[in-house]
Amino acid sequence: MLQLQYIKEHRDECIERLKIKHVADVEQRIDEIIALDEQRRSIQKKADDIKAEQNNIAKEVGMLFKQGKREEAEAKKNLTAELKADEKRLSEQMANVEQELNTKLISLPNAPHITVPQGRTADDNLEVGRFGEMPNLGIDALPHWDLCAKYNLVDFELGNKITGAGFPVYKGKGARLQRALINFFLNSAADAGYVEIQPPLMVNEASGLGTGQLPDKEGQMYAIPLDGFYMIPTAEVPITNIYRNVIVNADQFPIKHVGYSECFRREAGSYGKDVRGLNRLHEFSKVEIVVIEHPDKSYERLEEMKKHVGGLLDQLGLPYRILKLCGGDISFTSAMTFDFEVWSAAQQRWLEVSSVSNFEAFQANRMKLRFKDSDGKMKLAHTLNGSALALPRIVAALLENNQTPDGITMPECLRPYLGFDKIS
RNA sequence: GGAAAGAUGGCAGAGCGGUCGAAUGCGGCGGUCUUGAAAACCGUUGACCUUCACGGGUCCGGGGGUUCGAAUCCCUCUCUUUCCGCCA
Protein backbone atom coordinates (compact mmCIF):
# COMPACT_ATOMS: atom_id res chain seq x y z
CA MET A 1 0.00 0.00 0.00
CA LEU A 2 0.97 3.60 -0.43
CA GLN A 3 2.65 5.35 2.47
CA LEU A 4 0.33 7.56 4.46
CA GLN A 5 3.11 10.07 4.83
CA TYR A 6 3.48 10.31 1.05
CA ILE A 7 -0.25 10.76 0.59
CA LYS A 8 -0.36 13.54 3.16
CA GLU A 9 2.71 15.40 2.00
CA HIS A 10 2.16 15.02 -1.74
CA ARG A 11 -1.60 14.95 -2.03
CA ASP A 12 -1.84 16.52 -5.49
CA GLU A 13 0.98 14.53 -7.01
CA CYS A 14 -0.48 11.35 -5.55
CA ILE A 15 -3.87 12.08 -7.09
CA GLU A 16 -2.31 12.90 -10.42
CA ARG A 17 -0.40 9.62 -10.44
CA LEU A 18 -3.42 7.55 -9.44
CA LYS A 19 -5.43 9.16 -12.22
CA ILE A 20 -3.09 7.48 -14.70
CA LYS A 21 -4.56 4.23 -13.37
CA HIS A 22 -8.10 5.60 -13.73
CA VAL A 23 -8.84 5.13 -10.06
CA ALA A 24 -12.46 6.17 -9.51
CA ASP A 25 -13.14 9.15 -7.21
CA VAL A 26 -9.47 9.60 -6.41
CA GLU A 27 -9.73 13.05 -4.87
CA GLN A 28 -12.50 11.91 -2.60
CA ARG A 29 -10.75 8.73 -1.56
CA ILE A 30 -7.49 10.50 -0.85
CA ASP A 31 -9.18 13.24 1.14
CA GLU A 32 -11.11 10.67 3.16
CA ILE A 33 -7.86 8.99 4.03
CA ILE A 34 -6.29 12.28 5.10
CA ALA A 35 -9.35 13.15 7.19
CA LEU A 36 -9.36 9.74 8.86
CA ASP A 37 -5.72 10.15 9.73
CA GLU A 38 -6.43 13.49 11.36
CA GLN A 39 -9.23 11.90 13.35
CA ARG A 40 -6.95 9.10 14.40
CA ARG A 41 -4.31 11.52 15.63
CA SER A 42 -6.70 13.60 17.67
CA ILE A 43 -8.19 10.49 19.31
CA GLN A 44 -4.73 9.21 20.07
CA LYS A 45 -3.73 12.49 21.69
CA LYS A 46 -6.71 12.26 24.04
CA ALA A 47 -6.05 8.59 24.79
CA ASP A 48 -2.38 9.29 25.47
CA ASP A 49 -3.23 12.02 27.95
CA ILE A 50 -5.63 9.75 29.83
CA LYS A 51 -3.12 6.94 29.93
CA ALA A 52 -0.43 9.29 31.21
CA GLU A 53 -2.72 10.32 34.04
CA GLN A 54 -3.55 6.70 34.86
CA ASN A 55 0.12 5.82 34.89
CA ASN A 56 0.80 8.63 37.32
CA ILE A 57 -1.97 7.55 39.67
CA ALA A 58 -0.81 3.94 39.58
CA LYS A 59 2.70 5.05 40.44
CA GLU A 60 1.49 7.17 43.32
CA VAL A 61 -0.66 4.34 44.65
CA GLY A 62 2.34 2.06 44.56
CA MET A 63 4.41 4.59 46.49
CA LEU A 64 1.71 5.08 49.11
CA PHE A 65 1.38 1.35 49.65
CA LYS A 66 5.12 1.07 50.07
CA GLN A 67 5.04 3.85 52.66
CA GLY A 68 2.23 2.05 54.43
CA LYS A 69 -0.33 4.82 53.85
CA ARG A 70 -3.18 2.47 53.13
CA GLU A 71 -6.16 4.84 53.41
CA GLU A 72 -4.63 7.42 51.07
CA ALA A 73 -3.86 4.70 48.57
CA GLU A 74 -7.36 3.30 48.66
CA ALA A 75 -8.75 6.79 48.08
CA LYS A 76 -6.54 7.33 45.04
CA LYS A 77 -7.57 4.03 43.53
CA ASN A 78 -11.07 5.26 42.93
CA LEU A 79 -9.83 8.11 40.79
CA THR A 80 -9.10 5.79 37.92
CA ALA A 81 -12.64 4.47 37.44
CA GLU A 82 -13.77 7.40 35.36
CA LEU A 83 -10.55 7.50 33.39
CA LYS A 84 -10.99 3.86 32.55
CA ALA A 85 -14.42 4.44 31.09
CA ASP A 86 -13.08 7.28 28.94
CA GLU A 87 -10.19 5.16 27.82
CA LYS A 88 -12.44 2.32 26.78
CA ARG A 89 -14.67 4.64 24.79
CA LEU A 90 -11.68 6.19 23.04
CA SER A 91 -10.05 2.88 22.22
CA GLU A 92 -13.27 1.70 20.58
CA GLN A 93 -13.38 4.87 18.51
CA MET A 94 -9.73 4.39 17.68
CA ALA A 95 -10.24 0.83 16.53
CA ASN A 96 -13.06 1.91 14.23
CA VAL A 97 -11.14 4.77 12.70
CA GLU A 98 -8.01 2.68 12.26
CA GLN A 99 -9.89 -0.12 10.61
CA GLU A 100 -11.61 2.23 8.21
CA LEU A 101 -8.34 3.95 7.42
CA ASN A 102 -6.62 0.65 6.85
CA THR A 103 -9.36 -0.66 4.59
CA LYS A 104 -9.19 2.48 2.49
CA LEU A 105 -5.41 2.39 2.31
CA ILE A 106 -5.15 -1.26 1.41
CA SER A 107 -7.75 -1.02 -1.33
CA LEU A 108 -5.86 1.83 -2.98
CA PRO A 109 -3.60 0.63 -5.81
CA ASN A 110 0.01 1.66 -6.22
CA ALA A 111 0.51 5.05 -7.82
CA PRO A 112 2.04 4.67 -11.29
CA HIS A 113 5.26 6.49 -12.03
CA ILE A 114 4.52 9.86 -13.57
CA THR A 115 5.96 8.71 -16.92
CA VAL A 116 3.61 5.75 -17.28
CA PRO A 117 1.65 6.23 -20.52
CA GLN A 118 -1.99 7.23 -20.44
CA GLY A 119 -4.40 4.60 -21.67
CA ARG A 120 -7.10 2.14 -20.77
CA THR A 121 -6.40 -1.19 -22.44
CA ALA A 122 -3.54 -3.32 -23.72
CA ASP A 123 -3.93 -1.54 -27.07
CA ASP A 124 -2.70 1.64 -25.43
CA ASN A 125 0.60 0.15 -24.28
CA LEU A 126 3.65 1.87 -25.67
CA GLU A 127 6.03 -0.19 -27.76
CA VAL A 128 9.52 0.91 -26.76
CA GLY A 129 11.63 -1.54 -28.72
CA ARG A 130 11.53 -4.39 -31.24
CA PHE A 131 14.33 -6.88 -31.69
CA GLY A 132 15.21 -9.88 -33.82
CA GLU A 133 13.98 -11.14 -37.18
CA MET A 134 10.47 -12.44 -37.67
CA PRO A 135 10.78 -15.72 -39.58
CA ASN A 136 8.92 -16.33 -42.81
CA LEU A 137 7.26 -19.68 -42.49
CA GLY A 138 5.49 -21.46 -45.31
CA ILE A 139 1.73 -21.77 -45.29
CA ASP A 140 2.05 -25.35 -44.07
CA ALA A 141 3.69 -24.17 -40.85
CA LEU A 142 2.17 -25.81 -37.79
CA PRO A 143 1.10 -24.15 -34.54
CA HIS A 144 2.98 -25.44 -31.52
CA TRP A 145 0.17 -27.69 -30.29
CA ASP A 146 0.36 -29.63 -33.55
CA LEU A 147 4.14 -29.76 -33.31
CA CYS A 148 3.86 -31.04 -29.73
CA ALA A 149 1.65 -33.85 -30.94
CA LYS A 150 3.72 -34.58 -34.04
CA TYR A 151 6.98 -34.95 -32.08
CA ASN A 152 5.36 -36.23 -28.89
CA LEU A 153 6.69 -33.38 -26.75
CA VAL A 154 3.70 -32.34 -24.67
CA ASP A 155 0.64 -34.47 -23.94
CA PHE A 156 -2.37 -32.31 -23.13
CA GLU A 157 -4.83 -35.21 -23.06
CA LEU A 158 -2.78 -37.03 -20.47
CA GLY A 159 -2.79 -33.91 -18.31
CA ASN A 160 -6.58 -33.77 -18.57
CA LYS A 161 -6.74 -37.32 -17.32
CA ILE A 162 -4.34 -36.89 -14.41
CA THR A 163 -5.46 -33.47 -13.24
CA GLY A 164 -7.51 -31.38 -15.63
CA ALA A 165 -7.26 -28.88 -18.44
CA GLY A 166 -4.24 -26.62 -18.19
CA PHE A 167 -1.94 -29.16 -16.58
CA PRO A 168 0.09 -30.55 -19.47
CA VAL A 169 2.48 -33.48 -19.30
CA TYR A 170 5.89 -32.93 -20.90
CA LYS A 171 7.49 -35.99 -22.41
CA GLY A 172 10.80 -37.05 -23.90
CA LYS A 173 12.55 -34.19 -25.66
CA GLY A 174 9.75 -31.91 -24.52
CA ALA A 175 10.59 -32.62 -20.89
CA ARG A 176 14.28 -32.28 -21.63
CA LEU A 177 13.68 -28.92 -23.28
CA GLN A 178 11.89 -27.72 -20.13
CA ARG A 179 14.79 -28.75 -17.96
CA ALA A 180 17.32 -27.19 -20.34
CA LEU A 181 15.51 -23.87 -20.35
CA ILE A 182 15.26 -23.80 -16.54
CA ASN A 183 18.98 -24.49 -16.23
CA PHE A 184 19.88 -21.96 -18.89
CA PHE A 185 17.80 -19.28 -17.21
CA LEU A 186 19.06 -20.05 -13.71
CA ASN A 187 22.70 -20.14 -14.78
CA SER A 188 22.39 -16.91 -16.74
CA ALA A 189 20.92 -15.18 -13.69
CA ALA A 190 23.59 -16.61 -11.42
CA ASP A 191 26.23 -15.24 -13.80
CA ALA A 192 24.54 -11.85 -13.52
CA GLY A 193 24.86 -11.91 -9.74
CA TYR A 194 21.45 -13.21 -8.70
CA VAL A 195 21.59 -15.58 -5.73
CA GLU A 196 19.51 -18.69 -6.31
CA ILE A 197 16.59 -19.54 -4.03
CA GLN A 198 14.48 -22.64 -4.07
CA PRO A 199 11.32 -21.53 -2.30
CA PRO A 200 8.26 -23.37 -0.98
CA LEU A 201 5.46 -23.66 -3.54
CA MET A 202 2.78 -22.95 -0.96
CA VAL A 203 2.59 -19.81 1.14
CA ASN A 204 0.57 -18.64 4.11
CA GLU A 205 -1.86 -15.76 4.15
CA ALA A 206 0.63 -13.24 5.52
CA SER A 207 2.89 -13.82 2.53
CA GLY A 208 -0.02 -13.38 0.13
CA LEU A 209 -0.79 -10.05 1.77
CA GLY A 210 2.84 -8.99 1.71
CA THR A 211 3.29 -9.06 -2.04
CA GLY A 212 -0.27 -7.97 -2.78
CA GLN A 213 -1.93 -11.13 -4.10
CA LEU A 214 -4.27 -10.85 -1.12
CA PRO A 215 -6.80 -9.48 -0.78
CA ASP A 216 -6.79 -8.02 -4.29
CA LYS A 217 -6.39 -11.15 -6.39
CA GLU A 218 -7.58 -13.90 -4.12
CA GLY A 219 -9.50 -15.69 -6.89
CA GLN A 220 -6.32 -16.03 -8.92
CA MET A 221 -4.64 -18.42 -6.49
CA TYR A 222 -5.40 -22.02 -5.69
CA ALA A 223 -6.25 -22.23 -1.99
CA ILE A 224 -5.79 -25.03 0.49
CA PRO A 225 -8.32 -23.89 3.10
CA LEU A 226 -7.79 -26.84 5.43
CA ASP A 227 -4.28 -25.62 6.16
CA GLY A 228 -4.66 -21.94 5.30
CA PHE A 229 -2.17 -22.12 2.45
CA TYR A 230 -2.11 -20.88 -1.13
CA MET A 231 -0.31 -22.37 -4.11
CA ILE A 232 2.07 -19.71 -5.37
CA PRO A 233 1.13 -17.94 -8.62
CA THR A 234 4.79 -16.93 -9.02
CA ALA A 235 8.06 -17.35 -7.12
CA GLU A 236 7.90 -13.62 -6.49
CA VAL A 237 5.63 -14.34 -3.53
CA PRO A 238 7.84 -16.62 -1.42
CA ILE A 239 11.10 -14.97 -2.46
CA THR A 240 10.06 -11.39 -1.76
CA ASN A 241 8.50 -12.49 1.52
CA ILE A 242 11.88 -13.68 2.71
CA TYR A 243 12.28 -10.01 3.55
CA ARG A 244 8.93 -9.50 5.27
CA ASN A 245 9.50 -7.77 8.62
CA VAL A 246 13.18 -7.50 7.91
CA ILE A 247 15.45 -4.51 8.39
CA VAL A 248 18.25 -4.91 5.85
CA ASN A 249 21.59 -3.16 5.90
CA ALA A 250 21.85 -0.45 3.29
CA ASP A 251 25.22 -1.82 2.20
CA GLN A 252 23.53 -5.07 1.14
CA PHE A 253 21.79 -3.30 -1.73
CA PRO A 254 21.04 -4.45 -4.30
CA ILE A 255 19.76 -7.77 -2.98
CA LYS A 256 19.32 -9.94 -6.07
CA HIS A 257 17.62 -13.32 -6.10
CA VAL A 258 16.59 -15.79 -8.74
CA GLY A 259 14.34 -18.78 -8.30
CA TYR A 260 12.72 -21.41 -10.42
CA SER A 261 9.27 -22.59 -9.44
CA GLU A 262 6.13 -24.06 -10.78
CA CYS A 263 3.44 -21.40 -10.86
CA PHE A 264 -0.22 -22.12 -10.23
CA ARG A 265 -2.98 -19.89 -11.52
CA ARG A 266 -6.71 -20.47 -11.57
CA GLU A 267 -7.18 -18.21 -14.60
CA ALA A 268 -10.92 -18.15 -14.01
CA GLY A 269 -12.79 -16.78 -16.98
CA SER A 270 -10.15 -17.45 -19.63
CA TYR A 271 -11.16 -19.43 -22.67
CA GLY A 272 -10.93 -19.64 -26.45
CA LYS A 273 -7.80 -19.32 -28.54
CA ASP A 274 -6.00 -17.59 -25.68
CA VAL A 275 -5.78 -20.86 -23.82
CA ARG A 276 -4.98 -23.14 -26.74
CA GLY A 277 -1.88 -25.30 -26.31
CA LEU A 278 0.76 -23.71 -24.14
CA ASN A 279 -0.63 -20.20 -24.38
CA ARG A 280 -2.26 -20.18 -20.94
CA LEU A 281 -1.96 -22.88 -18.32
CA HIS A 282 -2.97 -23.53 -14.73
CA GLU A 283 0.49 -24.81 -13.92
CA PHE A 284 3.66 -23.65 -15.62
CA SER A 285 7.37 -23.30 -14.99
CA LYS A 286 8.99 -19.95 -14.53
CA VAL A 287 12.33 -18.52 -13.47
CA GLU A 288 11.85 -15.29 -11.60
CA ILE A 289 14.29 -12.56 -10.62
CA VAL A 290 13.60 -10.48 -7.51
CA VAL A 291 15.50 -7.41 -6.40
CA ILE A 292 15.41 -5.37 -3.20
CA GLU A 293 16.96 -1.97 -3.79
CA HIS A 294 17.51 1.49 -2.34
CA PRO A 295 14.72 3.88 -3.42
CA ASP A 296 17.20 6.12 -5.24
CA LYS A 297 18.45 3.26 -7.38
CA SER A 298 15.35 1.22 -8.17
CA TYR A 299 14.67 2.60 -11.64
CA GLU A 300 18.30 2.15 -12.59
CA ARG A 301 17.94 -1.46 -11.45
CA LEU A 302 14.74 -1.88 -13.46
CA GLU A 303 16.73 -1.07 -16.59
CA GLU A 304 19.36 -3.61 -15.65
CA MET A 305 16.69 -6.26 -15.22
CA LYS A 306 15.23 -5.41 -18.63
CA LYS A 307 18.66 -5.85 -20.18
CA HIS A 308 18.99 -9.24 -18.56
CA VAL A 309 15.63 -10.41 -19.87
CA GLY A 310 16.34 -9.04 -23.34
CA GLY A 311 19.71 -10.79 -23.33
CA LEU A 312 18.04 -14.16 -22.74
CA LEU A 313 15.68 -13.65 -25.66
CA ASP A 314 18.57 -12.54 -27.88
CA GLN A 315 20.44 -15.73 -27.09
CA LEU A 316 17.36 -17.82 -27.78
CA GLY A 317 17.09 -16.08 -31.14
CA LEU A 318 13.45 -15.16 -30.64
CA PRO A 319 12.01 -11.96 -32.12
CA TYR A 320 10.48 -9.82 -29.40
CA ARG A 321 9.14 -6.45 -28.52
CA ILE A 322 9.11 -4.48 -25.29
CA LEU A 323 6.01 -2.67 -24.15
CA LYS A 324 5.76 -0.02 -21.50
CA LEU A 325 2.39 -0.75 -19.97
CA CYS A 326 -0.17 2.03 -19.87
CA GLY A 327 -2.02 3.06 -16.73
CA GLY A 328 -5.04 0.93 -17.53
CA ASP A 329 -3.06 -2.27 -18.10
CA ILE A 330 -0.53 -1.99 -15.29
CA SER A 331 -1.15 -4.19 -12.25
CA PHE A 332 -2.62 -3.10 -8.92
CA THR A 333 0.73 -3.29 -7.14
CA SER A 334 3.06 -1.93 -9.80
CA ALA A 335 4.41 1.59 -10.31
CA MET A 336 5.97 0.77 -13.68
CA THR A 337 5.91 -2.37 -15.78
CA PHE A 338 7.55 -3.50 -19.01
CA ASP A 339 6.19 -6.53 -20.80
CA PHE A 340 8.33 -8.64 -23.11
CA GLU A 341 6.44 -10.38 -25.90
CA VAL A 342 7.86 -12.94 -28.32
CA TRP A 343 6.58 -13.42 -31.82
CA SER A 344 4.85 -16.73 -32.28
CA ALA A 345 5.30 -17.22 -35.99
CA ALA A 346 2.69 -19.87 -36.69
CA GLN A 347 0.01 -18.32 -34.50
CA GLN A 348 0.95 -14.93 -35.93
CA ARG A 349 0.65 -13.24 -32.57
CA TRP A 350 2.71 -11.79 -29.76
CA LEU A 351 2.97 -13.81 -26.55
CA GLU A 352 3.88 -12.25 -23.22
CA VAL A 353 6.86 -14.08 -21.72
CA SER A 354 8.05 -11.60 -19.13
CA SER A 355 6.77 -8.77 -17.05
CA VAL A 356 9.36 -6.64 -15.30
CA SER A 357 8.09 -4.27 -12.63
CA ASN A 358 9.13 -1.76 -10.03
CA PHE A 359 6.76 -1.79 -7.07
CA GLU A 360 8.58 1.06 -5.36
CA ALA A 361 7.63 0.93 -1.65
CA PHE A 362 4.18 -0.56 -2.19
CA GLN A 363 5.04 -4.13 -1.24
CA ALA A 364 7.70 -3.01 1.25
CA ASN A 365 5.09 -1.00 3.11
CA ARG A 366 2.82 -4.01 3.47
CA MET A 367 5.73 -6.21 4.44
CA LYS A 368 7.58 -3.72 6.64
CA LEU A 369 10.72 -4.25 4.60
CA ARG A 370 13.00 -1.47 5.75
CA PHE A 371 16.58 -0.28 5.88
CA LYS A 372 18.48 2.39 7.75
CA ASP A 373 19.48 5.11 5.34
CA SER A 374 22.72 7.09 5.46
CA ASP A 375 20.87 9.88 7.29
CA GLY A 376 20.16 7.39 10.09
CA LYS A 377 16.44 7.23 9.33
CA MET A 378 14.42 4.06 8.86
CA LYS A 379 12.95 3.90 5.36
CA LEU A 380 11.05 1.45 3.18
CA ALA A 381 13.07 -0.33 0.53
CA HIS A 382 11.93 -0.73 -3.06
CA THR A 383 11.07 -4.14 -4.49
CA LEU A 384 11.27 -5.22 -8.11
CA ASN A 385 10.79 -8.41 -10.00
CA GLY A 386 10.61 -9.89 -13.44
CA SER A 387 10.17 -13.16 -15.25
CA ALA A 388 13.44 -14.46 -16.63
CA LEU A 389 11.61 -16.23 -18.11
CA ALA A 390 8.25 -17.99 -18.21
CA LEU A 391 8.67 -21.27 -20.06
CA PRO A 392 5.54 -22.35 -21.91
CA ARG A 393 5.29 -19.49 -24.37
CA ILE A 394 9.03 -19.59 -24.94
CA VAL A 395 8.63 -23.25 -25.84
CA ALA A 396 5.70 -22.41 -28.09
CA ALA A 397 7.68 -19.75 -29.95
CA LEU A 398 10.83 -21.88 -30.19
CA LEU A 399 8.90 -24.77 -31.69
CA GLU A 400 6.95 -22.67 -34.14
CA ASN A 401 9.66 -20.28 -35.25
CA ASN A 402 12.37 -22.90 -35.69
CA GLN A 403 10.36 -25.56 -37.48
CA THR A 404 11.73 -26.93 -40.73
CA PRO A 405 10.48 -29.73 -42.98
CA ASP A 406 12.85 -32.13 -41.24
CA GLY A 407 12.62 -31.07 -37.63
CA ILE A 408 12.90 -28.23 -35.14
CA THR A 409 16.29 -26.60 -34.71
CA MET A 410 17.32 -25.79 -31.14
CA PRO A 411 19.19 -22.57 -30.39
CA GLU A 412 22.92 -22.75 -29.72
CA CYS A 413 22.65 -21.59 -26.11
CA LEU A 414 20.52 -24.58 -25.11
CA ARG A 415 22.56 -27.34 -26.71
CA PRO A 416 24.89 -27.91 -23.75
CA TYR A 417 21.83 -28.51 -21.60
CA LEU A 418 19.83 -30.46 -24.18
CA GLY A 419 22.31 -32.97 -25.48
CA PHE A 420 20.73 -32.66 -28.93
CA ASP A 421 20.41 -29.88 -31.48
CA LYS A 422 17.26 -30.86 -33.28
CA ILE A 423 13.86 -32.30 -32.52
CA SER A 424 12.87 -34.68 -35.31
C1' G B 1 -2.57 -38.65 14.57
C1' G B 2 -0.81 -38.92 20.28
C1' A B 3 2.25 -36.39 24.29
C1' A B 4 5.17 -32.45 26.32
C1' A B 5 7.66 -27.79 26.30
C1' G B 6 8.17 -23.00 24.60
C1' A B 7 7.31 -17.85 22.07
C1' U B 8 11.24 -11.56 25.47
C1' G B 9 15.44 -6.33 21.81
C1' G B 10 19.84 -7.75 15.30
C1' C B 11 21.08 -12.74 17.70
C1' A B 12 21.63 -15.65 22.32
C1' G B 13 19.42 -15.47 26.99
C1' A B 14 17.63 -13.58 32.38
C1' G B 15 13.36 -11.54 34.40
C1' C B 16 9.65 -11.82 43.25
C1' G B 17 2.52 -8.09 40.07
C1' G B 18 4.98 -1.80 41.40
C1' U B 19 11.41 3.45 38.52
C1' C B 20 11.26 -3.25 33.42
C1' G B 21 11.84 -0.88 27.55
C1' A B 22 13.58 -4.86 30.16
C1' A B 23 19.89 -7.93 33.46
C1' U B 24 23.93 -10.35 30.97
C1' G B 25 26.67 -12.04 26.64
C1' C B 26 27.48 -11.58 21.39
C1' G B 27 27.01 -8.42 17.36
C1' G B 28 26.84 -3.03 15.65
C1' C B 29 28.65 2.09 16.31
C1' G B 30 32.24 5.77 18.64
C1' G B 31 36.79 6.31 21.37
C1' U B 32 41.69 5.06 24.00
C1' C B 33 46.02 2.23 22.75
C1' U B 34 48.70 0.92 17.74
C1' U B 35 52.65 2.69 11.87
C1' G B 36 47.93 -0.06 10.66
C1' A B 37 45.01 -4.03 12.41
C1' A B 38 43.76 -7.60 16.18
C1' A B 39 43.36 -8.06 21.43
C1' A B 40 42.25 -5.25 25.77
C1' C B 41 39.74 -1.22 28.00
C1' C B 42 35.95 2.96 28.08
C1' G B 43 31.46 4.71 26.15
C1' U B 44 27.20 3.96 23.12
C1' U B 45 23.38 0.97 20.74
C1' G B 46 15.35 -1.33 19.85
C1' A B 47 10.91 -0.13 16.98
C1' C B 48 6.42 2.64 16.39
C1' C B 49 2.73 6.88 17.21
C1' U B 50 2.56 12.01 18.64
C1' U B 51 5.09 17.06 19.38
C1' C B 52 8.61 22.78 16.25
C1' A B 53 10.76 21.22 20.80
C1' C B 54 10.53 19.62 25.98
C1' G B 55 7.72 15.76 26.67
C1' G B 56 3.78 12.06 26.36
C1' G B 57 2.05 7.28 24.67
C1' U B 58 2.39 2.10 22.63
C1' C B 59 5.16 -2.48 21.91
C1' C B 60 8.12 -8.69 25.81
C1' G B 61 3.85 -14.11 19.56
C1' G B 62 -1.97 -12.34 18.46
C1' G B 63 -6.66 -11.39 21.02
C1' G B 64 -9.44 -11.08 25.60
C1' G B 65 -9.63 -10.88 31.10
C1' U B 66 -8.09 -10.00 36.57
C1' U B 67 -5.71 -5.51 39.07
C1' C B 68 -4.95 1.17 41.17
C1' G B 69 -0.76 -1.19 38.46
C1' A B 70 0.84 -7.10 34.10
C1' A B 71 6.69 -9.31 30.35
C1' U B 72 5.22 -11.46 35.17
C1' C B 73 -1.58 -14.15 37.08
C1' C B 74 -6.09 -16.32 34.16
C1' C B 75 -8.60 -17.61 29.35
C1' U B 76 -8.12 -18.21 24.16
C1' C B 77 -5.89 -18.40 19.31
C1' U B 78 -1.60 -18.95 16.27
C1' C B 79 3.14 -20.60 15.58
C1' U B 80 7.73 -23.19 16.89
C1' U B 81 10.58 -27.10 19.11
C1' U B 82 11.15 -32.09 21.19
C1' C B 83 9.45 -37.25 21.79
C1' C B 84 6.17 -41.28 19.83
C1' G B 85 3.46 -43.06 15.39
C1' C B 86 3.30 -42.86 9.94
C1' C B 87 6.31 -41.76 5.79
C1' A B 88 9.52 -39.46 0.64
Explain what this protein looks like in three dimensions:
With 424 residues, the protein is an alpha+beta fold. The protein folds into 2 domains: 4-106, Helix Hairpins; 122-423, BirA Bifunctional Protein, domain 2, CATH 3.30.930. It is built from 14 helices and 19 strands. The protein has helices spanning 4-9, 11-20, 26-66, 70-77, 80-106, 144-150, 156-162, 173-191, 205-211, 236-240, 298-316, 362-367, 391-401, 415-418, and strands at 126-131, 154-155, 169-170, 195-197, 202-204, 223-224, 229-231, 247-248, 255-264, 283-293, 320-324, 336-344, 349-358, 370-372, 378-380, 382-390, 403-404, 407-409, 422-423. The chain has an 8-stranded mixed β-sheet with strand order 1-11-12-13-16-10-9-4. Helix 3 (26-66) runs antiparallel to helix 4 (70-77) and helix 6 packs across helix 13. The mean pLDDT is 92.
**Number of E-type strands:** 19
What is the CATH class designation of the largest domain? Alpha Beta
Give average pLDDT, whole number: 92
Estimate the strand proportion.
15-25%
Count of helix runs: 14
Instruction: Give helix % range.
Output: 40-55%
Number of domains: 2
Structural class: alpha+beta
Q: What low-confidence regions span 5 or more consecutive residues with pLDDT below 50? A: none
Tell the overall outline: elongated
CATH architecture of the largest domain: 2-Layer Sandwich
CATH superfamily of the largest domain: Bira Bifunctional Protein, Domain 2
CATH topology group of the largest domain: BirA Bifunctional Protein, domain 2
In whole angstroms, the N-to-C terminal distance is 51 Å
Mind describing the biggest β-sheet?
A: 8 strands, mixed
What's the gyration radius in Å?
Answer: 27 Å
Strand order of the largest sheet: 1-11-12-13-16-10-9-4
